[in-house]
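Input chain follows. Return structure tokens only.
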Amino acid sequence: MSLVGYNADSRSQLTLWDRSAAGALSGALVRLVGQPLDVAKIRLQLQVESDAGRKYSGLFNLLFTMPKEEGIRSLWKGHLAAQLLSISYGVTSFGVFELLTKLIFISGSSKMQEPAFRPVTHFVCGGIGGCAATIVSFPFDVIRTRMVAQSEVKKVYTSSLDAVYKLQAEGGIKAFYRGLAVTMAAVGPQTGLQFGFYSLFNQIMSGLVTQHDSELNQRVMTTLGSLSCGALAGLSAKLSVYPLDTVKKRLQISGWEGRKDLGLTVRYAGAMHCLGDIFKREGVRGLYKGVSPALIKSGGSTSLHFWLYEHICYVLTLRFSKTDR
């Protein structure tokens, strides 16, 4: 039995705060490990130039060049903003997801409670949770992207706080929400797909990914099962919506002059203009720039995220079950 999603038998004693805290902690730990791949993905996504004129020829070239030119710490650029992004996103997405799955359960909707419909239920609840989390965490995403995009040679922002002040001066509150519409269009389905695919793979491989737990007297996800289902869910979801993520990143630095020595930065009038310009300059491949580190990161981070979330919820459930004895 997966501990992701409300279940009256095993989760009744976990509060919404417990579940939200588990989402935040798991997100923070995953961010710490996966930040270099996120930095690499963003830098590759922002390259407008053709193969001949681009600064980085690929993932391995970037991972060698960036530390050499900007220091090893450059792979953790914007880490404070990224951590705030992960924590706020984890609290909101998992909190809303768990709340909605509980409301569906107690509403008595028999269809949505059936095992066959569980992936669909998780997709819908996860998508809503992802949209809510995006609105809450988006300013941190913009700051993180700007911090990663700038060169260490010609710094525009000296810190995340400095970026906040300068973004406010640049465009007010709107500056912190550039690319929000296209992000909502991507993140809602992606988060929903992550939860939906995780539930689906859990059902398909139920005999392989669960084992009997004597402490709780029920079947629970194994470590390998949670990691493998999470990895498959992350890869499937990311590949489905990746082009929208590229458009979002381009819009977040639209017209910005903080990365002159890293390549061309185009000013876009909106999401459709950005999409059309990418097609014209770079073709369909342009929408998938940075996809290699993105898939590696998404598969790995989603795998770790679900495993950590399952494990933290298991520890909390175990604590409550022992208290009640």
